[in-house]
Amino acid sequence: MNHDDTYIDDNEVEHIHEHGPLAELVTVRDWIRYAVTRFNRAGCFFGHGLQDAYDEAVYLVLHTLSLPLDRLDPFLDACIPGDEREAIFAVIEKRAVERLPAAYITGEAWLGNFRFKVDPRVIIPRSFFAELLQDGFSPWIADPEAVSSAMDMCTGSGCLAILMAHAFPNAKIVAVDISPDALDVARENIAAYGLEEQITLIQSDGFSAVPQQTFDFILSNPPYVTQEAMDALPKEYLHEPGLALGSGEDGLDLIRRLLADAPRYLKPEGLIAVEVGHNRHIVEETFPDLTPTWLSGPSGENKIFMLEAGQLL
C-alpha cells in the first residue's frame, strides 16, 4: 500500500479489501495502531484540539464505532465486523489523503465537556479562553454572577459565547462575526444548548454594525495569523476559512480596529481580553504605550492579553 499523500486507485482498493487491513486488522487495538502509522507516514499535522497521531487515531476509531470517547480500555481487544472495518478505513484514508482535520470528518469539536457542531464554514474551536472561562475568568472577574453583559467578538461556531453564557449565568451575551455562514453554524450550536434567549448574534465587521451599548466584558479570539505564517500553513489549516485565520501582514489588522473601537463599548470598569497566540512580541512592538496584563492558563502562557477600559482611553 502506498503511504504517500496521494489517492489510491481501484486496484489498490481491491487489494486492500482482499489482503490488506480490512482482512488483517481485527481489533480496535489493531486499527488504532494502523491509523497512527498511516497518519505519521502521510505527514499529517495535529493542531486542532488533538495532540498527536495517537490521540486522533483513538478519537476517530471510537467515534466511527459510536463508542464512548472517554472509555478506550474496555474495547481495545473487541473484534470489529467487516462493514465497520470498511467505515474505519474510509475515515483513516480521508484524514491521511485529503488532510481533513478530524473535526471536519466527524462534524464535531470539543472544548472541555462542551460539544460543538463544526464544518468548513467555521474555524475549528480551539482557544486558551476555554480554560479560563471554566472558573468564570477568575480572578480578573471577581463575581461571575454580577456580569450583566458580555461580548464574544469573532464568535465563529459560537463556542466561546456558549462558554460565556455558562460562566456568566446572568449576562446577556452578544456574539459577533463577519461571516453569515459562521453565524448559521453558531445559531445551531446556541439552539442545541437552549441559549437563544441569552445569546444574540450580530453580523458585523468588527464593531461596525454593533448597536451602541456597553459591556462588562469583551472577549475576542480574532484572526491573528501573520502573512508569513499563512503562507506556511500545513494543509489541514487550508480547509478552514482563511478569513478566520489571517489578518494582514503582521496579523493585527483587525485587532487594531478592535482596540480603537472598544472604549465606546466598554463600561467604565469593563475588561477586554484578546487572544493572539504566539504574537505577544508583535503586540508589544505595535502598541508600545499599552500595558496589558498577559494571562496564562494550564495549556499556555502569554497567549491572551487583557486591558481595563481606562487603559484604552
Structure description:
With 313 residues, the protein is of the alpha/beta class. The protein folds into two domains: 10-106, Orthogonal Bundle (Helicase, Ruva Protein, domain 3); 120-312, Rossmann fold. The protein has 13 helices and nine strands. The chain has helices spanning 10-19, 21-24, 28-42, 53-64, 82-97, 102-106, 129-133, 159-167, 180-192, 227-231, 253-261, 280-286, 309-312, and strands at 108-111, 114-117, 149-153, 172-177, 199-203, 215-220, 266-275, 293-297, 300-308. Strand 3 (149-153), helix 8 (159-167) and strand 4 form a beta-alpha-beta unit. Helix 3 (28-42) packs across helix 4, helix 3 runs parallel beside helix 5 and helix 4 crosses helix 5 (82-97). It is elongated. Mean pLDDT is 92; it is low at 1-8 and 10-16.
Secondary-structure element sequence? Answer: HHHHHHEEHEHEHEEHHEHEEH
Task: State the helical fraction.
Answer: 25-40%
Radius of gyration: 22 Å
Query: CATH fold name of the largest domain, please?
Result: Rossmann fold
Largest sheet data: 7 strands, mixed
Number of helices: 13
Give the structural class: alpha/beta
Number of domains: 2
Number of E-type strands: 9
**Shape-level CATH architecture of the largest domain:** 3-Layer(aba) Sandwich
Name the CATH homologous superfamily of the largest domain. Answer: Vaccinia Virus protein VP39
